[in-house]
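Summary: Need help interpreting a holo structure output

Steps to reproduce:
1. Submit the protein chain below together with the SMILES for flavin-adenine dinucleotide.
2. Request a joint structure prediction with the ligand placed.
3. Inspect the structure token block that comes back.

Expected: a single structure record containing both the chain and the bound molecule.
Actual: see attached output.

Input attached:
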Amino acid sequence: MLDSRVIRDLERQVDVPHVYTRAADLAAYAYDAWGASGERHLPDAVVFPASTEEVAGVVEVCAHYRVPVVPRGAGTGYAAGAAPWQGGVVLSVARMNRILGIEADALRLRAEAGVVTAAIHRRAAQAGLFYPPDPGSATTSTIGGNVACNAAGPHALRYGTTADFVVGATAVLADGRVVRVGEGGDAGDDPLLALLSASEGTLAVITEVSVRLLPAPAARATLAATFTSIDSAAGAVAEIAGSGIVPAALEFLDAGALDAVRRAGGTTLGADGEALLIVEVEGDSQAVAGGADTVMTAATAAGASSTERAADAADAARLWAARKAVSAAVAKVMIGKVNEDVVVPRDRMAELVGFTTDLGHHHGLPVVNFGHLGDGNLHATFLIDPRVPGQRARADKAAGDLFETVLGMGGSLSGEHGVGQAKLAYVERQLGPAGVELMWRIKAAYDPLGILNPGKKLPQRSSSSASSSEPAKSVSSTTAASSRPSGSMSTDRS
Ligand SMILES: Cc1cc2nc3c(=O)[nH]c(=O)nc-3n(C[C@H](O)[C@H](O)[C@H](O)COP(=O)(O)OP(=O)(O)OC[C@H]3O[C@@H](n4cnc5c(N)ncnc54)[C@H](O)[C@@H]3O)c2cc1C
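--- attached output ---
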């Protein structure tokens, strides 16, 4: 429980109706993405500021009382990043949902952090423009959350991730001061802007974002191909890559993923093979026609059992349906999942899919694989029933084995979902002690009290490397110290 003085001061910042403290209201903010990570931790309060100034006021109150602040967009993250591990205040940007302006000539759009990604897609399209980052959660996730996780999506293959499109941001620092970063040009021009990308709420609260837009592509072709083996699907990908064209998207579902979509009532193009590829080609009409032919030829040469090309936009949506539905379908057919988001060099994807399937057999768990084959990003998902004793522990063990193998292949723990709380144990293995120490120094510079999303992104340092930049002890009844508070609802992973 928070000291009543903290609640009183928060209510002064955002008005009484915008501070939740009842247990029934808090429960919905204890987890993210259906609680897929298994992490559920009750906050002590949830606040809903409506402006940068109100965010600054809330953060200032929390800094004064040394209370953790957990920024929250739509709560679609898969890594428990928005779950308040140490209790404290969840700061939701849900009321900050206005598109502040679009400058069509300058190819820029400015939005509050709580604007849903798909609203940016729609607003850009109305102006004949295009915002490429397209996470599968786009109809729900927020632009602030996308920046905080550096969200990607199918279009990342050709265009890049959120970080490649963010040109400016307004953010509230851990002491309540407001900074405006970027705006001058590419994100790479401003290291302060670049640091916000993928900071997962640990460095600042993002309140406004400016993104770069592109002219909408003149033409687009959507194609789908099914294969009787993962190896032949991988062969098609190698052929496409070797042809020199860069598709806008190159997505993949394995037999387990197709089965989950079917069982959840979705359509899978009648595919009963081992793999479905969905490929999108964009550009001027001549380039698209040539690219589509190249993809069809590559798929056929690699042994595709069927190929389809969308006749129009509605038909393209039909081809995309299985891919768009797969995440939710997996959650529907099995009540729990341990959903990983690993990256390996593209030419090792078939090997990795085979490895995860074997891992599932070894640990007695069904496995579903899907993802962005074009850039080597695999969503390897172990299905569990968390009510069955030991299943989550087995899935966590399988995930650990997966991470070790991925790092051994020269890959990475996360392509897009972030570290959050769920992948903390493996960060040092990837970055090494010096990399972790550097992250802590940056954290200490931004957040010397350690109140911003504590326990996320940065693994605990060994006591020998910990220094004066460790979080200060709280003076309130909820602490920013390292022990797990009584608000924890799940101990599955701990
Ligand atoms: C069905 C489904 C499909 C998905 N597909 C994709 C995909 O294709 N690609 C992809 O990259 N991800 C995907 N995701 C994961 C997720 O949607 C993204 O990580 C997304 O960017 C999270 O946005 P959010 O607004 O929900 O953030 P949240 O889940 O609320 O927060 C995520 C992290 O960002 C921080 N954060 C949120 N808002 C702010 C802010 N304003 N300031 C500072 N920190 C903040 C939080 O503290 C937390 O650490 C998917 C998730 C689901 C459920």
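--- end attachment ---

Reviewer comment: Residues 32-33, 70-78, 81-82, 93, 113, 135-137, 141-142, 144-146, 148-149, 151-153, 200-201, 205-206, 327-328, 416-417, 420, 453, 456 surround flavin-adenine dinucleotide (CB under 6 Å). The chain has 14 helices and 19 strands.
Status: needs-info
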